């Protein structure tokens, strides 16, 4: 199961699982610290020029992904802003937050679906199993983000996370 992402859709819920060859504390830190997130968040060819994290319940993570890869054609130079609001945090175990598309000012986009996310960090044979449960308002809202290429994007993002974790050890 290492290096392979498992994906399951059940109605309006998408569950993703992957095992990372790193201690749970490090994987958790990679999701909770802006300096870590800047190194790996987003698909290949995209950077994070803006990333602020107020990591506490009620706190906000606001970021910009920018396409730096000319080979990605029309996406080159494109910016995609996101905003997450943390709901609950159990250190090294779980992060619950709502994820939104936003603008550079942090205003939430009403054109795109929000996602309620529960990230679980599970010790697994000396490694860390990450379980990402994403709940959408409807199966149609989930399909909208799938149609945008979200699964490829998260696969590349988690590949970059694996590489970052190896370099951070």
Describe this structure in words.
With 169 residues, the chain is of the alpha+beta class. It has one domain: Alpha-D-Glucose-1,6-Bisphosphate, Chain A, domain 4 (2-Layer Sandwich), CATH 3.30.530. Helices cover 26% and strands 41% of the residues. The chain is built from four helices and eight strands; from the N terminus they run ββααββββββαα. Strands 1-2-8-7-6-5-4-3 form an eight-stranded antiparallel β-sheet. α1 packs across α2. The longest helix is centred in the last third of the chain and has 19 residues. The chain starts with 5 loop residues before the first strand and ends with a helix. Pfam families: AHSA1 (PF08327). Belongs to the AHA1 family.
Summarize the topology.
Blueprint: E1 6-10, E2 13-20, H1 24-32, H2 34-40, E3 46-53, E4 60-67, E5 79-90, E6 94-102, E7 115-124, E8 127-135, H3 139-147, H4 150-168
Domain Activator of Hsp90 ATPase homologue 1/2-like C-terminal: 21-165
Pfam families: AHSA1
InterPro entries: ASHA1/2-like_C, START-like_dom_sf
Task: Write down the Rg.
Answer: 15 Å
Give the distance, in angstroms, between the N- and C-terminal Cα atoms. Answer: 21 Å
Instruction: Give the fraction of residues assigned to helices.
Output: 25-40%
Mean pLDDT reading: 94
Return the string of H and E elements.
EEHHEEEEEEHH
Bulk shape: globular
Main β sheet profile: 8 strands, antiparallel
Domain Activator of Hsp90 ATPase homologue 1/2-like C-terminal: 21-165
Family: Belongs to the AHA1 family.
Protein name: SRPBCC domain-containing protein
Pfam family, one: AHSA1
